[in-house]
Amino acid sequence: MSLKNTWWKEAVVYQIYPRSFFDTNGDGVGDLNGVRAKLDYLQELGVDMIWLCPVYKSPNVDNGYDVSDYQDIMDEMGTMEDFDRLLEEIHARGMKIMMDLVLNHTSDQHPWFRESRSSRDNPKRDWYVWRDQPTNWEAIFGGPAWTYDPKTQQYYFHLFTKNQVDLNWENPELRRAVYDMILWWLDKGIDGFRVDAINHLKKDFTDMPNPDGLDYVPALEKMTNVEGIQDLLAELRRETFSKYDVVTVGEANSIRAHEIGEWISEADGKFNMIFHLEAHDEAWDEDSVGGVDVDDLRIILDRWQRSAHGIAWNSLYLENHDRPRTVSTWGNDQEHWWESATALGCMYFFMQGTPFIYQGQEIGMTNAPFDDISMYRDIETKNMYRYNRQKGVPHKDLMATIQKISRDHARTPVQWNGEKNAGFSTGTPWIPVNPNFNWLNVEAQQKDTQSVLSFYKKMIRLRKQHKTLVYGSTHLTFLECPFVYAYTRELGEERFLVVSHLDDNTCSWWSPVEGELLLSNYDSHVDGKLQPYEARVYRLE
Q1: What pTM did the predictor assign?
Q2: What are phi and psi of 233, to 5 degrees?
Q3: Residues 6 or more apart from 513 whose CB is under 8 A from it?
């Protein structure tokens, strides 16, 4: 099967976490006008599409992933008029916008849930999941997955927090209301959706006993890829996405490469791409000192490349709003900050798939050195700390883990310049700024042709100049260096070689390469050697 050439395959996508992007009114929270104010920067970077994390009305228990009104804008972000103006200016620049879509749950403040919990015989009672007795399931963010409602004397189910109440996708009236909401946004003119936690829509509520003293078990075991979910997703696509020329990306944390056909194949897929977490979950050990297992990374990503070849399309990403900064986990943000930030970027950017860049990644932003729990804002981090302290885990041990893995590392404000609050806000930021902003910032890198930012611009230009780097086949290449990730891209008579050395030491490899060196993060090269975190891209003869 031959894949079709489409606009979203050739695009480069930039993910914006609006709360931390740019604040225009001094309240310490980024907003829609802040996104609009930086459109020239994004256009200069070379991106084609913006992925906007949730800006819907929300009480912000989980920073917008708890929606209280899908068809309104949260007060901190602005107004629907601000969104319409942003949409207009994005399109005027020839760019596109993808919205985040949260379909597994709503806020407990959503009118649907307020009606549902008002009485047992309310017409919307069955839009959510209610039971007389809870099971021994633990929520993803810690604690029980069921909360008691004293008014109606039943328990409601929530996979995440008690304020994020799971929708009952078995109810056809609920599904119709969701589809109408999605169509409303598509009619408005947006260009796609990233769909949150999509593999949890179908539930298996087989009862599990909960006698006194029985340990809680993760609810995920009964809520992930349950039989029948493909039927739900097929209807979702048929009733909404298929009617428009848009792109859809599903977040499905447990999907593996051999399942690619039913999820994202062009013949039978329910989405255009999928965000899987396999590489992040298995190639980096959060309990280790640091670094990435290149062997595991090579195996996992190559498996996805080969499984998608000819039938589907990959999403390519290093970072997002739920992961700590890659240069601080997979790389070395001390001795080789610049080299590892650029080598990691080169490693993933030229594979088969659509590249996603998370805000701040393009300047090499690092994990924050926050050493006190009061400096963190993420509900997952705070819940993990609280529940484990109750179990007796020492504060020191918990903080050591949090400093490695907290989602807040990705959510510190974008570092625009070396001025107060990194130029993010004139007020007090909702979360502290990383103190390295005085040297690590956009303004400093815009003036430096050898910056991480300049390297990302070069990668984007190179990908746009060569169709082979978009549509070519991918072939893993083994060099003598055990810590090198190398592959070729081939289309017709044209071949490229991408080499990324992901280690602190120098290693030997076969060289010279017969071809033209198009991109490198070192000015000088050593014959037969790859220097620490050295990256190269060749067009082969």
Answers
A1: 0.95
A2: -70, -35
A3: 497, 538, 540
Which one of 48, 62, 108, 196 is the catalytic residue?
196
Residue identified by tokens 């075991």 is 221
Adjacent-strand bridge partners of 491 = 494
**Is 251 considered catalytic here?**
yes
- Please state, in angstroms and rounded to a whole number, the distance separating the CA atoms of residues 433 and 46: 26
Assigned token pair, 506: 């120098």
List the end-to-end C-alpha distance of the chain, in Å, as a whole number.
Answer: 28
Q: Which of 62, 66, 166, 251 is catalytic?
A: 251
Chain centre distance of CA 352: 18
Contact 127, 116 (CB under 8 A): yes
User: Each residue of 215-247: pLDDT tens digit?
Assistant: 667 777 788 889 999 999 999 999 999 999 999
Query: Considering only CA atoms, which of 30, 31, 47, 14 is closest in space to residue 460?
Result: 47
3 state SS for 368-421: CCCCCHHHCCCHHHHHHHHHHHHCCCCHHHHHHHHHHHCHHHHCCCCCCCCCHH
**How do the residues of the chain divide into helix, strand and coil, expressed in percent and rounded to 5?**
35, 20, 45
Q: If 0-12 CB within 10 Å is exposed, 13-18 middle and 19+ buried, where does residue 522 land?
A: middle
What is d(CA 519, CA 347) in angstroms, rounded to the nearest whole number? 12
Is-catalytic flag, 196?
A: yes
